[in-house]
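Class prep. Protein, please:
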Amino acid sequence: MPDRDLDPSATRLAKIMAQRGLCSRREAERLILAGMVEVDGRVVNTTSEPVPPRARVEIVGQGRRWLDTKITVLMHKPAGIVSTMPEGDQVPAWQLLTKDRLHDPAGRTEHQTVERVLAKPWLLSVAGRLDKDSRGLLVMTTDGRLVKGITGGTSISKQYRVTVDQPVTRRLLERLNGPRQLDGKPLLPMRVEGAVGGTQLTFTLREGRKHQIRRVCQEDGLRVLDLLRDRIGEWGLGDLPEGQWCIVPSVLKPERPEPEPEPEDVEPAATPAKRGGKPARPARTAAKTSAPGKPAAAKPKPEAPAKAAKPAKARVGFIKRKA
């Protein structure tokens, strides 16, 4: 295996596996340490070894079966619990994954799956963190692609119920639904609803900047008293009690396809003018030039602005709501 000093383009194997979509970086590290990854036909069992970017990487042995067996947990996180990375005496969410906190009133959850969660609960990755002071729906999974879909994409919406310290006004709703920026970067449009005169707001987001809701409220002179996330895509809190968890299938369908990047407009180059001749004319763009015998492509009409999508109905796996 070439040394990093000899091959500057070499990088860590786990990063390459994540970039190629084989699995998440955390999953890759576990597979590497278990000896389930080969690079150019050789087993690599250390996460620090650099790998050339064009190396042939394969998951071998039980690695593929392990990846295909995903576990996803929904938790109703209480305030005061941190999602990940605890400091000092803070309690991380995975410590609530105990047998007595399992919510399974119908007794339909497979015993073997529950035992896998209880054996090593810290191996589940959080898909969409909630800060310590926030509460509500938290997704924890061994599916790296699910994590990426929830945290890195825009096709899955998240809904939050927020209590603020001042009455809601029409002007406030207009500002919250209008164009916004955080840290100098534009935010994707938010859908914010609430009764004028009340103190309850419902935010529907398709991205999750750090403390986004609290920060945009602060910019408008509001203080958030309570923040509850009650839906991620088609998964909702339903009747899941606070501090408890349940197991659901590791499938979350996108509510809409990812938007394709729009092509950049290119200024047409000017045709050089002849000496003593007329001024130069702009060159015809490729869109206006057609092959012989074929009509030129028609200029596309501007698309009407898309209507805001209605939030999906919340549900929690196979849990039925109480009457």
Observations:
- The domain at 157-232 is CATH 3.30.70.1560 (Alpha-Beta Plaits).
